[in-house]
Amino acid sequence: MADVILTGASRGIGHALALALAERHGDRLVLVARDRARLDALVTAIKQKGGHAIAVPGDLSSLAEARALGQRLVEVVTPGATLIHNAGLWPAKRVLTPEGLESAFVVNHLAPLVMQRALLDAERLRRIMVVSAGLILKGHFDAARTPTGEDFSGIRTYCTTKLCFALAMRDISAANPALDVVVLHPGVVRTDLGARTGPVGWLLSLVKRGWEAPEVCAARLARILARERWSPAGEARWLVEEDEQPWPAVAESDVTRRAVRETTDRLLASA
Questions:
Q1: Residue 197 exposed, middle or buried by CB count within 10 Å (0-12, 13-18, 19+)
Q2: What pTM was computed for the model?
Q3: Which SUPFAM superfamilies does the entry link to (predicted)?
Q4: Contact between residue 46 and residue 53 where contact means Cβ atoms under 8 Å apart
Q5: Are 2 and 25 a contacting pair, CB within 8 Å?
Q6: b/e burial code for range 165-195 (CB count within 10 A of at least 16 → b)
Q7: Which end of the chain has the smaller Cβ count within 10 Å, N or C?
Q8: 17 exposure class (CB count in 10 Å sphere: 0-12, 13-18, 19+)
């Protein structure tokens, strides 16, 4: 029985994907989210469908919490596991973490790297899927300002932090050729990600009515997970929904890739 670790499992795409994967009785789902009650309810629903699942509550809102989560996962996950990075944050305002870093930069980029580092060091992982966003093409990384959110934008910050993690995962795949890594845009999905209050929130809720349901996206991701391999050794391919596409130009920029790499390495040196 292979383990499938799924972050952000308590709601949206993650919740729908967990239920879709419950029917793959050969896998055990290791469900990660902050809300223990919602995770426990999901585990029960999966077991009722004949699936196997355990809950591992964890928080990616700080590097210390991410490190502790990684250690908890090492204790329960067996070698040959698949990790699905699905948790994410689209912030409405600039918020700093205990480390003095912008919250989305941590949740969407640094903390997943810290969490997965323990799993890589313990040789638990065989495959990594990153549920990213097509909006990475709008990202713009500023090494001096992005980590602390001095360039915060209600839209651009989400794009940039997702771009940073995508670039980091390209480096991870190059450094770990035995891993099979894919980064993908999952589709335009009706979830509460990026929810806002007031008139903007009301307008956004109207727009979202035309977007696809999480269950449709989950079925697509399940099909991709069923593929024998996603990317050549040492590479991470970019998918738009189910189709491989060239990486966006910003993700091919040597200047941007080097700036993200050097900044990430510096910030994680003592994490």
A1: exposed
A2: 0.92
A3: NAD(P)-binding Rossmann-fold domains
A4: yes
A5: no
A6: bbbbbbbbbeeeeebbbbbbbbbebbbebbe
A7: N
A8: buried
